[in-house]
C-alpha cells in the first residue's frame, strides 16, 4: 500500500491543482465520517450519561453532563426492585430464548446455505426461491397464524413457542448461501473431494473453517433480532413471568408518568430508571458485538486458492 | 450414503459451479442425495414457521368468519375501511424516505470507510456506526421518545430551532414518516454498512490494483468496479429493507402509547391489521390486509430478483 502510494505522491506534487483537489476530497470524507459518527453516537452517549442522573437533574442539567454515582446507584437499585425483581426475570428469559434460538439457527442454516451454494440436488432452486419469498414476508403478518399453529400444538406460554419460530431464520440461510457461492472457491472443495473427503468431511473440515466470518455474522444477526423481538413474545407469552426484556420495557414505559400521566405516583418508574432499563436491555448485544467484531469484518479467502 | 454421493459428484470433471441452474441433470435426480441431508432440518422449520402460516393466512383471507368461501369480500371490506388508504400513504412515505437514505448514504459510507488507510480508524468508525444496531425494536423507540422530548433531549437545540417547544409538537403526524425513517436508519444503517464493507472486501486485491494502475480514481473505481461487484448485496439490502419497512409496527405503536392520543393506534397498515384482529375480532379481514402487504412485497421482490440476479452465483 505504502509502496504504491509513494510514487504517486511525488508525481502529483508537480501540479498544485491536483493536490488541492485531493485535500478537498479528504476534507469532505473527514466531515462526512465525523457527522455520521455524531449522528450515531450522540443518543448513546446521552443514554449513558442520563442513567447517572436523578429525575430532576435530567430535566435541569445540561444533557451532556454527568450526574453522580450516587444517583446511578439509586436508579440501579430502583430498577432491580421494580415489581419484586421483574427485570431480572425478564433478562433471564431473554438470554434463554435468544441463546437457544442462536444455537439451533446456526446448526440448521449454515449446512443448508452450504448445500444450496455448493451441492446439486432435486428441489434446490425451489428451496432457494421459497427461502427468498418467506424471507421477504412481513414477519408481523405471520405472528397471528403462527400463534394459532402453536396454540394447536399446546405450546403457548412455553419457551418453545418463541424459541422455535426464532430458530427459523431464512436470512441466515441466504447469507451463508451468498457467502459460500461468492467467497469460497469451488476449486478448493473439488480438491478436497479428489483427496478423498466425503461431503460431510468437506463441509466440516474445509468449508466450515473458511466460513467463520459468515457464521459469526449469521449468529450475530440472529441473536440481535431475537433479543430485540417484541411482537411475537408479546402474543405468545401472556404472563409477566415469561416476558423477555423487550416486552418488559414497554410495561415499564406504561409505568413512567412522563409518557403516561395516568400512572399513580407510587407505581411510577422515574425517567432515569427507564433510561437505565433501556441500557440494561441492550448490554448483552453490545457484549456479543465486541466479541464477534473480529470475525465480522475479516476479509477471508485471500490466498484460499492460487490461480 | 455419503460415500455414494461423494463418488457421484467428484467422479466427473470438477463441477462447474457457475452454472447452478440444476437443469444439467434432470434424469435420476429424485433420489435423496447428500444435499437433502444438509437442508432437511431447515426445510422442517421452513414448513412449520414459513409455509404453513402463509397458507393458513391465505385460507383465512378467503374464508367467512363462520366458515365457508368468502371470495374477495374480506379484501374489499378491509380496503374500504376509512383508515386503510391513510395507513398506506403513511407507510409509503416512510418507506420511500428510508430507502433513498439507505441506498445513497449506506453505499457512500461503506465505500468511504473501505477506502480509509488506517486499519484502526476503520475499526473505530465501523464500531461507532454499528452500535445503534443493538437498539432495534422497543429499546430504540424508548430512547427516541427521550431524544424527541425537548425538555431532556441531547439535541434540544435543534428541536427548538425548528420550532418544537414540546414533545407533542415534535410527534405531530406529519413529522412521523421522517421520524420513523430516522429511527430505522439510526438502528439499521450500521449493520448494512458492515455487510457492504464485507462485500467490498471480497473483491480481489488484483482487480483493485489493476484499476489503480489504469489510472482510475476513487469515484471511477467505485462506479465502474466496486458497485457492479457488490450489486447483489445492495439489492439484497433494498429487498430486506422494503419488506421490513412495510411492516412498520412497533414504532408507531409505542409512539401512539406515549403521545397522549395525538398519534392514532392505526397509523400503519400493520397496526390496522392488528386492530382488525385484536379489537374487532375480525381475523379474516386482518389476514386479507396481511395478504395485501405480502403481494406488494412479492411484486417488488420479483423485480429486484430479476434485475439484481440474486440466484446467479457469479
CATH class of the domain at 83-296 in chain A: Mainly Alpha
Query: Which structural class is indicated by helix and strand composition of chain B?
Result: mainly alpha
CATH architecture group name of the largest domain in chain B: Orthogonal Bundle
Instruction: Tally the helices of chain A.
Output: 15
Shape estimate of chain B: globular
CATH superfamily of the domain at 83-296 in chain A: MetI-like
How would you summarize what this structure contains?
The complex is a heterodimer of chains A (307) and B (314). By secondary structure, chain A is an all-alpha fold. Chain A is built from 15 helices and no strands.
Protein architecture, described:
With 307 residues, chain A is mainly α. Chain A has a domain at 83-296: MetI-like fold (Orthogonal Bundle). Chain A is built from 15 helices and no strands. In chain A, helix 5 (86-118) crosses helix 14. Chain A is flat. Chain A starts with a helix and ends in an 11-residue tail after the last helix. With 314 residues, chain B is mainly alpha-helical. Chain B folds into 2 domains: 35-71, no CATH class; 83-308, MetI-like fold (Orthogonal Bundle), CATH 1.10.3720.10. Chain B is built from 15 helices and no strands. The longest helix of chain B is centred in the N-terminal third of the chain and has 32 residues, at 84-115. Chain B is globular. The interface between A and B is large, with 118 and 123 residues.
Give the topology, please.
The complex is a heterodimer of chains A (307) and B (314).
Chain A: H1 2-12, H2 16-50, H3 55-60, H4 69-81, H5 86-118, H6 124-136, H7 139-152, H8 160-167, H9 170-183, H10 186-194, H11 199-210, H12 212-228, H13 231-236, H14 245-254, H15 271-296
Helix pairs in contact in A: 4-15, 5-8, 5-9, 5-12, 5-14, 6-9, 9-12, 10-11, 12-15, 14-15
Chain B: H1 2-10, H2 34-61, H3 73-79, H4 84-115, H5 119-130, H6 138-147, H7 156-161, H8 167-170, H9 176-201, H10 205-213, H11 218-229, H12 231-246, H13 250-258, H14 269-278, H15 283-308
Helix pairs in contact in B: 2-15, 3-15, 4-9, 4-12, 5-9, 6-13, 12-15, 14-15
Amino acid at each position: 500500500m505504502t509502496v504504491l502510494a509513494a510514487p504517486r505522491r511525488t508525481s502529483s506534487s508537480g501540479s498544485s491543482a491536483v493536490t488541492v483537489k485531493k485535500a478537498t476530497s479528504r476534507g469532505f470524507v473527514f466531515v462526512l465520517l465525523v457527522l455520521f459518527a455524531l449522528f450515531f453516537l450522540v443518543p448513546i452517549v446521552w443514554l449513558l450519561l442520563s442513567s447517572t442522573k436523578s429525575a430532576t437533574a435530567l430535566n435541569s442539567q445540561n444533557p451532556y453532563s454527568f450526574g453522580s454515582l450516587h444517583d446511578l446507584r439509586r436508579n440501579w437499585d430502583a430498577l432491580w426492585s421494580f415489581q419484586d425483581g421483574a427485570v431480572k426475570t425478564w433478562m433471564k428469559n431473554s438470554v434463554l430464548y435468544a441463546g437457544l434460538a442462536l444455537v439451533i439457527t446456526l446448526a440448521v442454516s449454515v449446512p443448508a446455505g452450504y448445500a444450496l451454494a455448493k451441492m446439486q440436488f432435486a428441489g434446490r432452486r425451489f428451496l432457494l426461491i421459497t427461502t427468498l419469498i418467506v424471507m421477504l414476508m412481513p414477519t408481523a403478518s405471520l405472528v397471528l397464524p403462527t400463534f394459532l399453529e402453536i396454540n394447536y400444538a399446546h405450546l403457548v406460554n412455553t419457551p418453545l413457542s418463541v424459541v422455535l419460530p426464532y430458530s427459523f431464520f431464512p436470512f441466515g440461510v441466504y447469507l451463508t448461501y451468498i457467502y459460500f457461492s461468492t467467497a469460497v472457491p469451488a476449486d478448493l472443495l473439488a480438491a478436497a473431494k479428489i483427496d478423498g473427503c466425503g461431503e460431510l468431511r468437506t463441509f466440516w473440515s474445509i468449508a466450515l473453517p473458511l466460513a467463520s466470518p459468515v457464521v459469526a455474522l449469521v449468529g450475530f444477526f440472529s441473536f440481535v433480532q431475537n433479543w430485540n423481538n417484541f411482537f411475537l413474545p408479546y402474543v405468545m407469552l401472556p404472563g409477566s413471568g415469561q416476558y423477555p426484556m423487550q416486552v418488559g420495557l414497554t410495561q415499564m414505559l406504561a409505568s413512567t408518568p412522563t409518557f403516561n400521566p395516568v400512572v399513580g405516583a407510587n407505581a411510577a418508574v422515574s425517567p432515569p430508571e427507564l433510561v437505565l432499563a433501556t441500557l440494561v436491555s441492550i448490554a448483552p448485544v453490545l457484549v456479543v458485538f465486541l466479541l464477534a467484531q473480529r470475525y465480522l469484518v475479516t476479509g477471508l479467502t485471500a490466498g484460499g486458492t492460487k490461480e | 450414503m455419503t460415500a455414494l454421493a461423494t463418488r457421484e459428484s467428484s467422479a466427473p470433471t470438477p463441477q462447474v459451479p457457475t452454472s447452478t441452474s440444476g437443469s444439467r441433470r434432470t434424469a435420476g435426480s429424485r433420489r435423496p442425495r447428500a444435499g437433502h441431508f444438509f437442508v432437511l432440518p431447515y426445510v422442517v422449520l421452513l414448513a412449520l414457521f414459513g409455509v404453513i402460516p402463509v397458507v393458513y393466512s391465505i385460507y383465512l383471507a378467503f374464508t367467512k368468519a363462520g366458515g365457508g368461501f368468502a371470495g374477495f369480500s374480506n379484501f374489499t371490506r378491509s380496503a374500504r375501511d376509512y383508515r386503510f388508504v391513510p395507513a398506506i400513504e403513511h407507510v409509503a412515505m416512510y418507506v420511500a424516505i428510508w430507502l433513498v437514505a439507505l441506498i445513497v448514504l449506506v453505499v457512500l459510507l461503506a465505500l468511504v470507510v473501505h477506502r480509509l488507510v488506517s486499519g484502526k480508524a476503520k475499526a473505530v468508525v465501523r464500531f461507532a456506526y454499528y452500535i445503534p444496531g443493538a437498539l432495534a425494536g422497543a429499546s430504540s423507540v424508548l430512547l427516541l421518545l427521550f431524544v424527541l422530548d425537548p425538555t431532556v433531549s441531547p439535541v434540544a437545540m435543534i428541536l427548538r430551532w425548528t420550532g418544537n417547544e414540546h414533545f407533542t409538537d415534535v410527534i405531530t403526524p406529519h413529522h412521523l414518516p421522517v421520524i420513523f425513517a430516522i429511527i430505522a436508519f439510526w438502528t439499521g444503517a450500521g449493520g448494512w454498512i458492515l455487510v457492504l464493507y464485507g462485500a467490498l472486501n471480497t473483491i480481489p486485491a488484483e482487480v483493485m490494483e489493476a484499476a489503480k494502475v489504469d489510472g482510475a480514481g476513487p469515484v471511477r473505481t467505485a462506479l465502474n468496479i466496486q458497485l457492479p461487484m457488490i450489486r447483489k448485496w445492495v439489492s439484497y439490502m433494498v429487498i430486506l429493507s422494503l419488506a421490513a419497512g412495510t411492516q412498520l409496527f412497533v414504532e408507531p405503536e409505542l409512539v401512539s402509547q406515549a403521545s397522549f392520543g395525538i398519534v392514532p393506534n392505526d397509523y400503519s397498515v400493520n397496526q390496522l391489521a392488528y386492530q382488525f384482529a385484536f379489537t374487532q375480532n375480525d381475523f379474516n379481514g386482518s389476514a386479507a390486509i396481511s395478504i395485501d402487504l405480502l403481494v406488494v412485497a412479492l411484486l417488488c421482490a420479483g423485480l429486484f430478483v430479476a434485475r439484481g440476479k440474486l440466484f446467479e452465483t457469479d
